[in-house]
Design goal:
This protein has 217 residues and is α+β, with helices and mostly antiparallel strands. The chain folds into 2 domains: 129 residues, Reverse transcriptase/Diguanylate cyclase domain (Alpha-Beta Plaits), CATH 3.30.70.270; 41 residues. The chain contains 5 helices and 13 strands. Strands 1, 6, 7, 8 and 9 form a 5-stranded antiparallel β-sheet that branches. It has a two-stranded antiparallel ribbon with strand order 2-5. Helix 1 runs antiparallel to helix 2. The protein starts with a strand and ends with a helix.
Length: 217
C-alpha cells in the first residue's frame, strides 16, 4: 500500500521573509559578493500604488519575491529547501518513513505500508510537523488544494476511509478514484488507462480542428 499526501503552500511567493532568506544564504555558504548583492536587492525596498492620478505614500517591503522575475525561482527554491531539510531530519529522528518530493510550492509526501491505517498515521504525523514548520517560516498550507491518494495491488474491493486532519486544524480529505498531478493522470493500480485515453482524445480533437481549418487562408 502506497499513500500520497499533496499539499500546496498558500501565499508562498509574496510571503518570503527577506531577513530569513539572507540568513539561509549565509548558512548555505554563499560567496560574500552574492550575499551582499541579495542584501542590497532585498533589504530596504519600498513600493507605492497609483490609481488614475492618485498616488499613495511609500510602503516598506520586507517580504515577498516578484513571481515571474529572473530571481524568484532561485530565491524561492533556497527558501523552501530549508523547510524540507528540517522536515526530513524530524521524520528521520522520529522514525516516520515518509518520502518527500517538491515542485516549487507543491509538496508531495509518500508513505508505504502493508496496512492503510499505518500509512494514514504516517501522513497524519507528517502533516502535524510540516504545518508547524511552515508557520514558523511565515507560510501556510492551502487546504483547498490538498489531496490524498492511495495505490494498492489488491484485487478486492477497495474503499479506504478519508484522512481526517481536523484534529490538527486541517481538512477531512476524501479519496478519489483518479488523481491528476503535474499533468499526469494516475489510477490506484498505475495502469495509466485514463491518462492514455485523455491525451488520445485530446490529440484526436486537435486533428479534427486542423481539418476544419485546412481550407482557410
Amino acid at each position: 500500500m502506497t499513500s500520497t499526501l499533496v499539499v500546496d503552500i498558500a501565499q508562498f511567493f509574496p510571503s518570503l521573509n527577506h531577513y530569513l532568506l539572507l540568513l539561509i544564504l549565509r548558512k548555505a555558504g554563499c560567496n560574500s559578493k552574492v550575499k551582499q548583492f541579495f542584501s542590497n536587492y532585498l533589504v530596504g525596498r519600498k513600493t507605492w500604488y497609483c490609481w488614475n492620478n492618485i498616488y499613495s505614500q511609500f510602503f516598506n517591503i520586507n517580504i515577498g519575491v516578484r513571481q515571474g522575475s529572473a530571481l524568484f525561482s532561485i530565491l524561492s527554491a533556497l527558501y523552501i529547501s530549508l523547510v524540507f531539510y528540517i522536515l526530513e531530519n524530524c521524520l528521520k529522528n522520529l522514525k516516520i518513513p515518509v518520502s518527500i518530493l517538491s515542485f516549487v510550492d507543491n509538496g508531495l509526501f509518500v508513505a508505504q505500508s502493508k496496512y492503510l491505517m499505518i500509512s494514514n498515521s504516517f501522513l497524519f504525523c507528517n502533516y502535524n510537523i510540516i504545518s508547524s514548520l511552515l508557520e514558523k517560516f511565515s507560510l501556510i498550507l492551502e487546504h483547498g488544494k490538498m489531496e490524498v491518494f492511495h495505490f494498492s495491488r489488491s484485487h478486492e474491493a477497495f474503499n479506504p476511509p478519508p484522512l481526517n486532519l481536523s484534529a490538527l486544524g486541517g481538512p477531512l480529505l476524501r479519496l478519489k478514484n483518479i488523481w491528476r498531478y503535474l499533468s499526469f493522470i494516475f489510477d490506484r493500480k498505475l495502469l495509466f488507462c485514463q491518462h492514455i485515453n485523455f491525451y488520445t482524445n485530446k490529440a484526436i480533437l486537435t486533428v479534427k480542428c486542423i481539418k476544419i481549418l485546412r481550407n482557410s487562408t
